[in-house]
Structure formats: C-alpha cells, structure tokens
TrEMBL record:
GO terms for cellular component: ciliary basal body. It comes from the Eukaryota. The lineage of its organism: Eukaryota, Discoba, Euglenozoa, Kinetoplastea, Metakinetoplastina. It holds the Pfam family TTL. Keywords: ATP-binding, Ligase, Nucleotide-binding. This is Tubulin-tyrosine ligase. InterPro entries: TTL/TTLL_fam (IPR004344). It comes from Trypanosoma rangeli SC58.
Length: 529
C-alpha cells in the first residue's frame, strides 16, 4: 500500500480515495494518484519502485486504518479501493459484480471502438450509405477507405476496379494507390505492410497465425514537420454512456429499473454520453524524411510509419526536451507537445484551406479549426459504437438500483490521427489501453497531467472511503458537488455539449445545428443493417 501523506495522521476532513494499481504496469498512474493526495493499493507487489521520476510512491498503510477503525470499519485491499486501474479489458461479468462506489477504467465491449477491423467495418458501412456531397459524407472522409480481409474482399476488389476506371477516365495520370495492411490485434507497428497490391499481399498473409487483417487506403500527402511525416496521440476520456440519476434506496430487495432520460429532438440527442478530449497530447515524428510511397520505397517503415516503437531505435531519434517558446513548448526531437503543434499550425504559410461548415468558418485560427475537426471525428467514432456500448453496460445492471447513476466505468482512450496537407484529420486507430510507459521526463510529465485530470473529473462522484455503503453512497450522490471545470482540468468536454478548449485562443465551443444533425444521422445509420 502506498500513499502521499507524510504526517502521522490523516486529515479527517479530507476525502480519502484509494486507487488499486495492482494490475497495471504503469507507474505514472500511481504517480498521478500520489500527486493528488490519494492512496495507491498495490497488494504487496514487489516490482513497484520507491520513486518514479522523483515522485515517492512508498508510505504507511496505518494512516488509513487509523481513520477507519474509530468508525467501526475495516480495510480490505481487494474490495475497499474505490478506483481500479487495469491494463486489460473487462468482461461484463466483472462490471456486474461491482458495488455502487467502485470505478473501473474500462467499459465492457470497448472492442466495438478499439478493434480496428470491427470499428472500420462499421464506419465503412455507414460511409457507403452517404452521398459524397452531404455534410456527414464529407465528415466521413476522416475515416480512410478500409476493408476486412476476412469478410470484405469483394468490396476491396470493386474499390480497386472503380479506382482503375476513374484513373483511365482522367486525362492526367494519377499516382499509384497504396494500401496499408494492419493485423487487427496488432500494436506498435508490428506486422504492418505497405503495398500497391493488397490482394496479392493478402494471399501470403491471410491465415498467418490466425490473424485477421484490415486493408486501408494509404492517405497522401501528409502534413509534415521538418519534411517528416507525423501523427497525433489524442487522449479521450469517456465517463458515461447512459443518462443516469442519483441512486434512491427502496425497500430491501427492490431495485429501480433503468429508464433513460426523456429527450426532445437534438436537445436530448447526446444525453448520457459524457466525453472529453485532453488539450495535451503527443506529436510523434518519423525518424526519416517523407517521400511518396513507391514500389521500391514502401518497405521503408521509418518513412511511412509513425509508431514510436518503429522509430525509437533509429540513429538521431530523440524525445523533445528543448523549451524555447514563452509558453514552454517542446520544439525539438521526434516527440513533441501540442503547444508546439499549435504554434506550428498557426504559423503555416498563408494558403486557402477548405471550410466545411459555418462552425469552421467561425474559427479564428487554423488551430481552432483543426481542434473542431478532431472533436467531430472523435464524436462520430464514439457515436458509431454507442448503441452497443450502452446496451452492454445496461445489461450488467450498472445503471439501476444503487448504481442508477451509471458511473461504474470510465475509459481513457488513445485516438491516433495523421493530418493531411489540407489540415484534415484522418483516424488511424483507437487504443482502448493507450501506452502510459514513460521513456523520458517529457513522457512522464505529459501523461501524469492527463491521468491526474482523469482523476479530477472522477473525484466529485467518488465518495470518501468511509462512506461507501449503499445508503451513504445514495446520500452522497444526492448532494450537489462542485464539478471540475475546463479552467482547472485539461479536458474540454465534447458531449453532451461542447465547451471551450482549455488552451488560450480556443474556439467558442458549442456544437452547431448542422453538426447535431450529423450526430443524429450517424446514430440512425448505426441501426440500419
């Protein structure tokens, strides 16, 4: 058991929150809890260091016991911690077994968003139903044409024929199309193949180790930094998928069924979906200068793949540490922060960029416009899987009875985007358990701030350790609590409403009517089979 207190007693007025980290490898999660004055339960793990980047993680469990014993309470390492942080996904049965005060960092069936083949198969089914010139059809360009190798070979063959026919009809020859083949469960760039002949490549790959493959159109040309391709790791937090309400205890043995909050038109369209995007993230730059793919260069992974694991061993690769601007932006190395990116985007040479909507036209800077495009893409991604996420969550019983507030689960997701030269974000994948390993002080500080802000958003709805029985929890949730704002937390909310970004010079926030119509349409199309 670890905690941050250095006194001989626990402040009786301070809320006591314990995070069970016994099933995570990520010490930055422990460090974030410690920084907030919370306790960390490791269940006697021996591989947890005493310090991590200068943060002490070891102290005395007797401080907790001293607070609980006078109240006739005891502490159990397995069941007492209010928050559980796991590296692996959770089954619905695990969520079903949670008590009302427990929080676990995964929703059941998150693979509907985080499994590449599952996500893009659904998104492509929606995209094929849309007119190219419709608002949603234009927004769906943020999802590259993708095909499941196991079920959509005919669609891939037809796509190739259509592209060949279009090329023949054009007077000027087009560049050869390339495709990127990704193993469905792959990570860190392992197994990825770039090829102009996806069907032939699949003949050698299909069935290999029983892996399923996703074929995606390789999007060009990318926006580059210092002539090198890069991608963005965006941290997205999901805290709710149902419109919950504070629990109200009835006679023993009776529970209240879940009834979604009534919604009228677009005003209630996003009720229950609480979604946030952090204003900090990672800019990951390739080790080698970009060149358009060719049959001879498509094997140069450090030119085309932005994965950190692929590039980190390259000569000259470094993680940025130089802070050269007045706001401390990281301006050198192959991994940089979003302060740098904001400067870079806004300083691009003046040129015309397509404006897709009145909302984008209202943006003052290119950076504001880009943030809105990213937020829109995140929303469309999550809405495409919301119905299944909601159905599974309700099925666990986590939205009725003493758990009617629907707050048992939260999820920190890692969205990976590349940017085109036209500042169009293109979704590459969604990670349900984004890496929180820290290879540098820059990594540590960025990721610790993100996790601390996750905890800050959870805290108002988490009771103190001694108030975790059903009756005390119901009383706690019925009492208004101050909720962290974007001024104190680095997340901007994008659902059910969009708030201003937490960075200076942010856009005005709210979703426009046209965007709400897109959300309504994609929810409708997810139900069409």
């Amino acid at each position: 058991m670890n905690d941050v207190a250095h006194d001989n007693d626990v402040d009786t007025l301070r809320k006591v929150i314990v995070v069970n980290c016994s099933q995570t490898r990520y010490h930055v999660v422990r460090a974030a809890a410690v920084a907030l004055g919370w306790y960390v339960e490791d269940e006697n793990r021996e591989d947890v260091p005493a310090t991590f980047y200068g943060v002490a993680l070891q102290s005395d469990v007797r401080l907790l016991t001293k607070r609980l014993v006078p109240r006739g309470l005891s502490y159990d390492a397995g069941s007492s911690p209010q928050i559980q942080w796991l590296d692996k996904s959770v089954l619905p049965s695990r969520v079903a077994a949670l008590s009302c005060h427990h929080r676990v960092n995964h929703f059941p069936v998150m693979h509907v968003v985080a499994r590449k083949a599952v996500l893009f198969k659904r998104l492509m089914r929606i995209r094929r139903q849309l007119k190219v010139d419709s608002a949603l059809g234009a927004a769906m360009r943020g999802f590259p044409w993708s095909f499941s190798a196991s079920t959509e070979l005919r669609q891939l063959e037809q796509f190739l024929r259509d592209q060949q026919q279009q090329q023949q009809q054009q007077q000027s020859p087009r560049s050869e199309l390339f495709f990127i083949l990704k193993p469905n469960r792959g990570c860190q760039g392992k197994g990825i193949v770039l090829t102009p002949e996806p069907l032939q490549a699949l003949e050698t790959l299909t069935g290999k180790d029983g892996e399923e493959w996703l074929v995606q159109l390789y999007v060009t040309p990318p926006l580059c930094i210092e002539l090198k391709k890069f991608d963005l790791r965006i941290y997205v937090l999901l805290t709710s998928v149902v419109a919950g309400r504070p629990p109200r205890l009835r006679r023993r043995g009776m529970s209240q069924p879940f009834r979604p909050a009534a919604s009228a038109g677009s005003a209630g369209l996003l009720d229950g979906l609480q979604l946030f995007v952090h204003h900090e993230g990672l800019v990951r730059i390739c080790a080698e200068e970009y060149a358009a793919p060719s049959r001879t260069s498509c094997g140069q992974v450090r030119v085309h793949l932005t994965n950190y694991a692929v590039n980190k061993s390259a000569e000259g690769f470094s993680v940025g540490v130089a802070r050269e601007t007045s706001d401390g932006a990281v301006c050198e190395g192959n991994k940089r922060d979003f302060k740098f990116l904001q400067h870079y985007i806004n300083a691009l040479p003046d040129q015309e960029h397509d404006v897709h909507s009145p909302a984008e036209a209202a943006a003052v800077t290119r950076w504001e416009c880009l943030l809105r495009r990213i937020d829109l893409c995140v929303m469309l991604t999550m809405l495409s899987g919301l119905e299944e996420l909601r159905r599974e969550f309700i099925g666990t019983g986590a939205s009725r009875g003493s758990r009617s507030d629907g707050r048992n689960c939260f999820e920190l997701l890692g969205f990976d985007f590349m940017l085109t030269e036209d500042l169009e974000p293109v979704l590459m994948e969604v990670n349900h358990s984004p890496s929180l390993f820290c290879d540098s002080a820059f990594d540590f500080e960025t990721k610790r701030r993100v996790v601390m802000d996750v905890f800050r958003l959870l805290e108002p709805h988490v009771p103190s350790l001694e108030a975790c029985d059903d009756a005390a929890y119901a009383a706690y949730q019925a009492t208004p609590h101050a909720v962290a704002s974007s001024e104190t937390v680095g997340f901007r909310q994008i659902s059910p409403q969009r708030t201003s970004a937490a960075t200076a010079g942010s856009d005005d926030g709210q979703w426009f009517e046209e965007e709400m119509r897109m959300f309504e349409e994609i929810l409708r199309l997810t139900r069409v089979r």
